[in-house]
Structure formats: structure tokens, C-alpha cells
Design brief:
This protein is α/β, with parallel strands linked by helices. The chain contains 9 helices and 9 strands.
Length: 217
């Protein structure tokens, strides 16, 4: 029976399937399962056959070392795409409206009676109104599983969308709303967006993609 080792939390449903066919071994596993754990060369034991990452990208796995040892590396692109998309939308809402600030202010009103509470809220609520996302421009860098889902949702919310992805696949292109405007360069996207969302793997070519230099264009 093959053996596995887990570095990060894995859903019980996944573990139940694993345990039907494999057994856990922290010392001499055949496979390593991880999410954000950064693997080192010392993690590659002699019987290791494969490494699986529950997430997109493999930047936390030493691919060259795995290749030299004949260890197969695979990931699960798209598995958490919807969850990430929802977090991006949440981040945009939190940055455009004073939701957290309003909540903190409301906590200071504990103990006030109805009339005074209402008066305080009415006098201060304008400070937390922020602005609507509708009509704003969202620049999406990377139009894979997450980026294309985000474009669909932003389009439904009435946002304008600019996309930049020089390596976009045909399948990803089919998933994009027709309203998405194509940016020929990253600079064009940055200079025309109100919000920017990055969905690219961490590689040498993408490291420091956003910097004081690119933000000052």
C-alpha cells in the first residue's frame, strides 16, 4: 500500500478517500500533499514518487530537484477559484465603503437608548458611505480560472473590465465576457484601472510585478 505525508490541512472528505487506498507515513512517504508549505531538498526521501499541491501554481516546490529525482509534481488549478474570486470582491467592497470603520463606530454606541442611537447613526453614517463599484474599472492581470470568474462577476456588478494576459488559453478566452477590454501592455492596464487584481504565479518573471515604478506610470 502506498503511503502519504500531509504538510497542511486537507479537507476531511479528501482524507477519507486517501485513507481508503493509502496510509499515512510521516517518515518514508511515497507522496507529499501540501498547500502553502515550502518544500526543501531535504523533504525528498528516497521512495518519494510524487508531490501534489492543493492550489494553483507550484512556486513553493523545488521543481528542478523533483525533476532530477524523477518525482512527478502536480497541482489543482481552479479548485479554489470561486472562493478566491469571492474574496477579491469582498476586498473591493471593503476598500470602497467604510464597512469596517462603520462597524467599529457602531460598537462605540453601546448603551445609548433608541432616540440617541438613531441620532448618532444618522449624523455619522455619511462618513462611511464610500462609493459604488458599478461604473468603476477593474484591471485583471492573469485571466485563468480565477481571473475569468472574477471578470464574469465584475461584469454582472456593472464594472468596466480591462484584462491583461499574454499567455491566455483558448478555454480561458471563451469564459470571458465579451465586454472585457484587452490591454496590450501591463502599463496600459495600470494607467486605466480603478482597481487591480493579480492572478499570476510567483515566478522570477512576475516577482515585483507591482512596484513604486509601475504604480507611478
Amino acid at each position: 500500500m502506498y503511503k502519504y505525508k500531509i504538510y497542511n490541512n486537507i479537507a476531511k472528505e479528501g482524507l477519507d478517500i486517501l485513507n481508503q487506498n493509502m496510509q499515512e507515513d510521516q517518515v518514508n512517504p511515497d507522496t507529499l500533499l501540501l498547500r502553502s508549505q515550502v518544500l526543501q531538498e531535504s523533504d525528498f526521501n528516497s521512495s518519494l514518487k510524487c508531490v501534489g499541491r492543493a492550489g494553483a501554481g507550484t512556486n513553493n516546490i523545488p521543481i528542478a530537484e523533483a525533476t532530477n529525482k524523477g518525482v512527478v509534481v502536480f497541482n489543482t488549478p481552479g479548485a479554489n477559484a470561486n472562493a478566491v474570486k469571492e474574496l477579491v470582491v469582498c476586498g473591493m467592497l471593503l476598500s470602497s465603503r467604510g464597512i469596517l470603520q462603520g462597524s467599529s463606530f457602531a460598537m462605540t454606541l453601546k448603551g445609548l437608548d433608541g432616540a440617541n442611537l438613531n441620532a448618532s447613526m444618522e449624523s455619522e453614517k455619511k462618513n462611511f458611505k464610500g462609493s459604488e463599484l458599478k461604473g468603476k474599472t477593474l484591471g485583471i492581470v492573469g485571466l485563468g480560472a480565477i481571473g475569468s470568474l472574477l471578470a464574469q462577476t465584475a461584469n454582472i456588478m456593472g464594472m468596466k473590465i480591462i484584462g491583461y494576459d499574454p499567455y491566455i488559453s483558448v478555454d480561458a478566452a471563451w469564459r470571458l465576457p465579451k465586454e472585457v477590454e484587452k490591454a496590450d501592455t501591463l502599463e496600459a492596464l495600470l494607467s486605466n484601472s480603478d482597481y487591480i487584481s493579480l492572478h499570476v504565479p510567483l515566478l522570477e518573471s512576475t516577482k515585483d510585478l507591482i512596484s513604486s515604478k509601475t504604480l507611478n506610470i
